[in-house]
Amino acid sequence: MTFLEAWRKRHKVRFVDASLLPWLLVTATNLHRNAARARARYAKVLARVPPPPSPREPTEHFERAQLDPGLRHALSTLTAQDVTLLLLVALEGLPVNEAASVVGLRESAARKRLSRLRARMQADGDVRNIVEGARS
């Protein structure tokens, strides 16, 4: 930054005893102080901003719902990615391709996961209907 400033002000730079060193030292000091003040202002602004709400786990949606204990246990065995995919497709109504991009999967992988979810939860008719409705 100091040398950039020297280049920018090359026509106004004052040499002392035929040396540029004093000007460079003063400029470097001033640039450092300006940066320190900027960091302090930024820290004060961040201190005043309330912290963001903590993201909820996808399983919290199922915990709040009135679910059969067996179904609740089946859902608790799923990975967070599978639960998120199921929530987005079955409950939020997103198409599989959009839900897949949100979760970070390809559409084919998301469809395969939903198929496996369907197979794993076939014992409960309500969940099977939800997952089968996710074929779109």
Short description:
The protein has 136 residues and is mostly helical. Helices cover 67% and strands 0% of the residues. The radius of gyration is 30 Å and the shape is elongated.
Instruction: Give the low-pLDDT segments.
Output: 132-136
CATH topology of the largest domain: Arc Repressor Mutant, subunit A
CATH C-level label of the largest domain: Mainly Alpha
Order of helices and strands: HHHHHHHH
Strand count, sense and closure of the main sheet?
Answer: none
- Number of separate strands: 0
Average pLDDT confidence is 79
Strand proportion:
under 5%
Number of helices: 8
CATH architecture of the largest domain: Orthogonal Bundle
Compute the CA-based radius of gyration: 30 Å
Description:
InterPro entries: RNA_pol_sigma-70-like, RNA_pol_sigma70_r4_t2, RNA_pol_sigma_r2, RNA_pol_sigma_r3/r4-like, WH-like_DNA-bd_sf. Belongs to the sigma-70 factor family. ECF subfamily. This is RNA polymerase, sigma-24 subunit, ECF subfamily. The chain has helices spanning 2-8, 21-48, 59-64, 69-76, 80-91, 96-103, 107-120, 125-132. The protein is elongated, with a radius of gyration of 30 Å. The protein has 2 domains: 2-48; 59-135, Arc Repressor Mutant, subunit A (Orthogonal Bundle), CATH 1.10.10. It has 8 helices and no strands. With 136 residues, it is mainly alpha-helical.
